[in-house]
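Q: I'm writing up a methods section and want to include an example of the input and output format. Could you take the sequence below and give the corresponding predicted structure tokens, formatted cleanly so I can copy it straight into the document?
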Amino acid sequence: MKAKILLSVMMSTVLLLAPIALAQRAGQDHDALARFQNALKRDGFDVTPGAAEIFNPAADYCAEKPGVTSALYNNRAPYLHLLVPKLAQTQETQQLVESFQLRPDEAVVLIGPTPPSVKYFGYYAFLSTRFLYTKEFPDGKRTELLGNLGDTVNNATVKTLGSTPFDRTVALIFTPDKGTDARIREALLRAGYPEAIMNTLVFPASMLNLGHTATADELLIAMRIGPSDHQAAVDSYVQDAQETLKVFRVTPRTEAVADPFKVPRLRVRGTGRTEMDLMNKMDKLRQGIIEANPGLSFTDITKLLSKPNFYEGNDYIQRYHVAFGNSRDVLWLSAGYLPEFEANDVITLADGEFLMVYGPNHVATGKAAYMNFSVYASEEGQVSIGQVSDDHLSGTARFFLPTDPDADLMYAYKISRSCGVGESNCLTLSIDNCERVTIDQNTKLGLIFRMYLESATRVGPPYAEILYDRVIKFSPPLP
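A: Here is the clean output for your methods example:
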């Protein structure tokens, strides 16, 4: 009798753990993937494989890849994008494209592991290009927008099994249609995937021109991966993505009657708690920086103000303005020369000149899960030539405010074309293997400050609750 009870308990435990075990390895479980595809095919779908690919606009620009004219002010972090079959089960089946069209009843499905432990990851749905009729192009012209369509699925919102969102298998369904979404979920269940790992990102039909026509919208699916204390594991994840992340275009063989999702509600930015208690402390930090550099002239306040940019995708899409792949998971500020965003303050660094950037450490204040600032060669491809993340900012304001109890809620960092040997808290501007970019006294510089994910809201913070980062330019005295 005891043996039977023990056996029953053991079997119950195995059955309970089976979905969890499957969720961990399903991205590489070919039997589960085959069951999923077969279930869809039996339910009247064509299932056409795609792929995941590393997306590195800076490398493409520097390599002079045909058609690439900009690095899109990219963050120095790994990106992946999905290559989707151009059409389902046709002579073009093998043609994979990054910008794709979608019928109102189609879907793209991604199955595979999330990244290893990182400060941030997110899955994005973009309106890539739209066919527009303008005064200059009365017959119409396809125009790049790269505007985000609603919220992402990120490390704070993703549905997974287990106590962590990292290194867990997920299934993501990108679709405009409720019925298609429901049938794909049923197929995943029949294949053995637990419902707890299923996530849907809506391509909102009411905002899009769907279909396979010459003037229909093109869409794009991408993934951003933030920094990690174990960068080698992240690098391996990115390099292995083509094997571990499985992508499918899912198309009903008989076109279904559309049952579109409504536009999903957006996560609300903000908690009402601001960084404004530090405003006067920021002035003291500025004064401390100036006093630490006696004999140098400086330019700040009115000429080098940082300002909001990269607004919401809903704003950019309505104004037909390229959004450079923006996201609601982040808040951006800019300073210097970024003319695409009406920031026209020219910053250059001659020999002996340098910048001091300073501001709240938005991670220390609780307004972001991670932050960084990046410097760009704005006229030459919008390429990053330097970046510093919050893990290098801690304690950097203490030198300028040695007795202030709030010093560790702020930061101060130097930017130079040539930092001194062994000089701490200094970023030397540089770029490897890019003959298209020159860094000299004439290079126009733009700065972008990024703040990712306020933990209380699981979205980027709002401008009204943020103290803006600041810039001072120092120059040696004239001879």
